[in-house]
Amino acid sequence: MSDCIRLEHVHKSYGSFAVQDISLGIKEGYITGLIGPNGAGKTTLIQMIMGMVRPDRGDIQLFGGQNKEQESAVKERIGYVSDENIYYEQLTVKQMKKVIAPFYSRWDEDTYVKYQELFRLSPGKKIKDLSKGMKIKFSLAIALSHGADLLIMDEPTSGLDPVFRRELLDLLTEHIQDEKKSILFSTHNTTDLDRIADYIVFVNDGRVVFSEMKEALAEKYLLVKGGKELLDRDTRRLFVGIRESAHGFEGLMGNRAEGERYFKDTAICETPTLEEIMYFSVKGSDLRV
Amino acid sequence: MNILISSTSGEPIYAQIVTQVRQLILQGELGAGTPLPSIRQLAKELQISVITTKRAYEELEREGLINSIVGKGSFVSGADQEFIKEQRLRILEMKLKEVSEESRQLGLSYAELAEMLKLIYEEEQE
């Protein structure tokens, strides 16, 4: 199985914030979710992959080649969707599409028209008059209409209503039917898109916490809920993060087998959701700083 | 082929697929040679990840219930009747185990349980 994106020891520093030593592979033919809290470095990573920001150090390869060479040929193969408006505000949807389409040799007008109708985009409306959700839909229609091999989406669901978020799942799973196309999306809302994600990359504070198959996470992590008398200095060390309340504690453990050995009979042991993994990991790392 | 995924049951999604497809095969609803949807097709229909679906198919293959042919897809295997009967008996055994545990917890004696089963069994026959 090959990687469509490879990052090797990538660094980028912005004064107080830095993305540090990121090495990653994004698998071809699958959906990868990039998760992490606000300010974790998700957008910086995506901007570096897109070539909008140059890393200070390290190497980024797309489709097995260097990013710098044949940049436009590489870009043609990427469909980019962002929650930020990247279009000319004063133009109408139709005018904007006319500006963009010629850049892509594989532009498919029929596909675009199909999505324009599906998303109920009015061609005569100015970009600045579109709602946030409509702007994302427009950007998605463009991204899906030029035969992209890789869809990169930065927080695509943030401005979308729950109904369309579900429909988006269908569009994305349809996109990867041919086993060659890949999707990378970032989100801090782990509950919707993670349903269909095959791989999860979790970044926090500029570092990769893990990059794993989603199926494997359930076997690695354990959520323990129990009485506070179970916590002492030794058992505390086993946890990634703990939340204590007046009536007990909840904690995330990174070694499921060990956790079950300790707490199976004395506490509630559950499989954590992605959101819980994210919450406790962030909480745990804050305490150690 | 009906497959219903519950997101609140706590049972892993791949296991839910395995259980349901296994049941459909053992009950004879999916006969030998019936093609199953492709992994990606099923993942799309159920709105779940490709790898989850793949894992379910691999499990079913290990149990000998389906065969996967590269480039052609997955099919219900032509396992012989004996094998399928064996599998069904195994499931029955598991259910009986559950019943006997529950009876013990309720303080039911074996004779009482047997009597109950006899009534139900005869009732069904009529």
UniProtKB/TrEMBL annotation, chain A:
Entry keyword Oxidoreductase: no
- InterPro entries the record matches: AAA+_ATPase, ABC_transporter-like_ATP-bd, ABC_Transporter_VariousFunc, P-loop_NTPase
Q: Which UniProt keywords apply?
A: ATP-binding, Nucleotide-binding, Transport
Which molecular function GO terms apply here?
ATP binding; ATP hydrolysis activity
Give any Pfam family that matches: ABC_tran
Can you tell which superkingdom this protein's organism belongs to?
Bacteria
For whether the record's keyword set contains Transit peptide, the answer is: no
Q: Which PROSITE patterns match?
A: ABC_TRANSPORTER_2
| Residues of the ABC transporter domain | 5-230
Q: What is this protein called?
A: ABC-2 type transport system ATP-binding protein
Q: What is the lineage of its organism?
A: Bacteria, Bacillati, Bacillota, Bacilli, Bacillales
UniProtKB/TrEMBL annotation, chain B:
GO MF entry, a single one: DNA-binding transcription factor activity
Judging by the UniProt lineage, the source's domain of life is: Bacteria
Instruction: Name the Gene3D superfamilies on file.
Output: Winged helix-like DNA-binding domain superfamily/Winged helix DNA-binding domain (1.10.10.10)
The answer to keyword Amino-acid biosynthesis applying to this record is no
Name the Pfam families on file. Answer: GntR
Q: Which SMART domains match?
A: HTH_GNTR (SM00345)
Sorted UniProt keywords: DNA-binding, Transcription, Transcription regulation
Q: Give the lineage.
A: Bacteria, Bacillati, Bacillota, Bacilli, Bacillales
Q: What InterPro entries does the record point to?
A: Tscrpt_reg_HTH_GntR (IPR000524), WH-like_DNA-bd_sf (IPR036388), WH_DNA-bd_sf (IPR036390)
The protein's name is: GntR family transcriptional regulator
The yes or no answer to whether the keyword Transcription is present is yes
